[in-house]
Design brief:
This protein has helices spanning 2-14, 18-36, 40-50, 56-79, 85-88, 98-105, 144-155, 164-172, 209-217, 252-267, and strands at 92-94, 110-114, 133-137, 160-162, 179-184, 195-199, 202-206, 221-230, 233-242. By secondary structure, the chain is of the alpha/beta class. It has one domain (2-271).
Length: 291
Amino acid sequence: MSAILYYVLIFPLSLLPYRVLYWISDLMFILVYRVIGYRKKVVRQNMISSFPQKNDSEITDLEKGFYHHFCDLIVETIKTFSLDQKKASTRMTVVNPELPDAFHAQGRDIIICGGHYANWEAFTYTAKQHKHGLYALFTPLTNQFFNVKMKESRSKCGMKLISKEKYKELISEKHSDPRAYIYSIDQSPRKGSGYRMTFLNQDSMVLFGTEKTAVENNLPVVFGAIRKVKRGFFEIEYELITDDPKSCSYGEITRKITRSLESLIDENPQFWLWTHKRWKHKPANTIRDES
């Protein structure tokens, strides 16, 4: 059934030009937002809690902007199944490759972190724009057919996808080719874990894995700010968080990368993934770190 869905519907859709796919996206907006109301309560509550200064009209406008962007993401993801490497590379530009490249010249691995903002999947298009080899975590899908297809799609431009079980081993192994390890920082941590701080005006637990890996392996940390230039085109600009993680105080790296993501979201909030139940786990009764 999965193969039939893919070859009869999804792959043929992916062959359509972007302008037609965006017409489909505009129609999808009506269905997803106005008819189905996909996760509308989650989105609205997340926005209200994150922007208490905004009135109902402003929240509604932001909500509509997000769902338009969300439908664009769906058709852009479909397009990746047939998009060739050369055309893909024109869709995402690295603004300042000299920042990570400087560490490559030193023979140092790095961590590149970011959030589910703009089109984070398009980051895979930039593999040839980096001197580092790009390595990212891949969480297998339960559907084996689509698991293979998604892995093929995400790795077609040169990014290597690694399972969670092998990721730690990969980082600690000896190698001569400098690597960049990709971390997403905005998921909700497992209950009882993470680092407590304020994020988007809410008492939050945030992931601590980026900092932990950086300190344990002495890896420079770079934040990647992905911005939507226009429909289907994106750019990523790098910000150095630290090149000496072992000198940072506990929580410092986590606070800095979270604040960088927060600033990015504040620029154009509609481009963050608001459907995610980001605050499903309430922070424990511990002291919140606001330094």
